[in-house]
Design a protein that fits this description.
Layout (H helix, E strand, L loop, with lengths): L11 E5 L4 H12 L3 E6 L2 H12 L4 E5 L5 H11 L4 E4 L14 H28 L3 E6 L12 H21 L4 E8 L8 H4 L2 H8 L13 H8 L10 E4 L9
Helix pairs in contact: 1-2, 3-4, 4-5
């Protein structure tokens, strides 16, 4: 962070799925750049750790949330109040071959990754409209733009996120609400580090044109761009951050 650089000062941001990984990193990033941050997730113990980390240099509030549950979403909306920036990050994955994919797994993934994302955007959009606008950043994936085996419901949900983003951008542009998507490629986190050290993981890395995994900080600039007024003439955009993976040779 550049000393004194606070492009989000006076803004209130909500980050879902913020108990760890990308969500916790996004929340801390927004707080470091001036936003008052609300973090939400199912794992309250993990949220407490994020609160302690962010609280050292910013304002943060934690609220429990199961994004797939309507009552939980309603409670979040009541407690969070007005927000200027919504980062729809909560997501799950269920891995299996398509022939073996259970209906319960399909429902869990689509309810969390797509349905919950839409209804949270719908819930906060009226407040943004009343204040003259806001920014919604939906976290998609390159798997919403390209295929991989074993993650059928996840890939379908992320493709839906991209179409949802563009549809809401069209409808809400007149209200000053910008809706954009961030589509990360493979990002190394504390949860997936072991896989990338396997032969299968190393082989996948070799297919990325930059020949490396993404780091959490590689997402900082794109997220700040979409969250701040620097992207005031952007809506319906999908920013891929993938080391060139989508343009790799077949």
């Amino acid at each position: 962070m550049v000393e004194g650089f606070a492009p989000l000062a006076g803004k209130r941001a909500l980050v879902t799925g913020a108990s760890g990984g990308l969500g916790a990193h996004f929340a801390e990033l927004l707080a470091r750049h001036g936003a008052d941050v609300v973090i939400a997730a199912r794992r309250l113990d993990a949220l407490d750790a994020v609160v302690r980390r962010i609280g050292a240099h910013g304002t943060v509030t934690a609220i429990p949330l199961d994004v797939a549950d309507a009552a939980s979403r309603d409670a979040l909306v009541r407690q969070a109040g007005a927000v200027d920036i919504l980062v729809n990050n909560a997501g799950v994955v269920r891995e299996s071959a398509a022939l073996d994919h259970a209906e319960a797994d399909w429902d869990a993934v689509l309810d969390t990754n797509l349905k919950g994302m839409f209804y949270l955007a719908q819930a906060f959009a009226p407040g943004m409209r009343g204040r003259g606008g806001g920014s919604i950043v939906n976290i998609a994936s390159i798997l919403g733009l390209r295929q991989a085996g074993g993650v059928v419901s996840y890939a379908v949900s992320k493709a839906g996120v991209i179409q949802l983003t563009k549809t809401l951008a069209l409808e809400w542009a007149r209200h000053g609400i910008r809706v954009n998507a961030l589509a990360p490629g493979y990002i190394e986190t504390e949860l997936n580090g072991d896989f990338w050290r396997t032969e299968a993981g190393k082989a996948l890395i070799r297919r990325i044109p930059q020949r490396r995994l993404g780091r959490l900080e590689d997402l900082d600039g794109p997220l700040l761009l979409l969250s701040s007024d620097a992207s005031r003439y952007m809506t319906g955009s999908v920013l891929t951050v993938d080391g060139g993976h989508l343009v790799s040779t077949l």
